[in-house]
Amino acid sequence: MLLRTGGKFASGPAGPAVAHRLRRDGNDAQPVLPANLEAMPDIFGVIADATRRDILQILLEKHVQSAEISVSEIVAQLELSQPTVSKHLKVLRDAELVTVREEGQHRFYSLDPEPLEMVEDFVIPFLSAGFDTEVTVEYLSATGERLPDPEDPDGDDVLSEEVATAAGNLGRAVASAEHRVKELVARFRLH
């Protein structure tokens, strides 16, 4: 996995959080990088500014509502001048963290959180270091009756191999998505 850090590339682990962005070419897994990665500003520098984080927080609130927001609404919420907000929105646009829709003289912005995945890819190994978790699983029927463990060679199969694989994949995808959402919410609440 290659991570952009300060205009250079550094190697990093390609864990489960980035598996969805790996492509297979022969036997080698390679990260799928945006075509314009060289031109993209350093994402860490972009989100380092407190005003831009405030703007991202406002956009996140609208994003959750599947809505967009005008520049004048952002100006009113942050109580900043319009040129200051516009300057920061340009930086966010250049980093592809926001999209803009023009309607006459008005511009409406919405959040595009995808570039923040580079931050997530960098941070997750630090957050998960040293976590050893043991999970105990019981299988219950719809009536609450305990079922045999499907991993137990002496027990009967509860799920077919195909269904068990699909359930495992689904569980991992849900856990990964939940973790990403929690981290983003926690990160934005800190600022």
Compose a concise summary of this entry:
The protein has 191 residues and is α+β, with helices and mostly antiparallel strands. The chain has helices spanning 43-48, 50-64, 71-78, 82-94, 117-128, 161-189, and strands spanning 2-5, 8-11, 22-25, 28-31, 69-70, 98-103, 106-111, 139-140, 146-147.
How would you portray this structure in words?
- It is a single chain.
- Residues 1-40 have low confidence and may be disordered.
- The protein has 6 helices and 9 strands.
- Helices cover 43% and strands 18% of the residues.
- A 3-stranded antiparallel sheet has the order 5-7-6.
- It has a domain at 133-189.
- A hairpin with a 2-residue loop joins strand 1 and strand 2.
- 14% of the residues are buried.
- The longest helix has 29 residues, at 161-189.
- By secondary structure, the chain is α+β, with helices and mostly antiparallel strands.
- The chain is elongated.
Flag low-confidence runs: 1-40
Strand content: 15-25%
What structural category characterises the helix and strand content? alpha+beta
Shape by Cα distribution: elongated
Instruction: Please work out how many helical segments DSSP would assign.
Output: 6
Between the first and last Cα atoms, what is the distance in angstroms?
29 Å
Biggest sheet architecture: 3 strands, antiparallel
Mean pLDDT: 74
Main β-sheet, spatial strand arrangement: 5-7-6
What is the chains' assembly state? single chain
Number of strands: 9
| Helix and strand element order | EEEEHHEHHEEHEEH
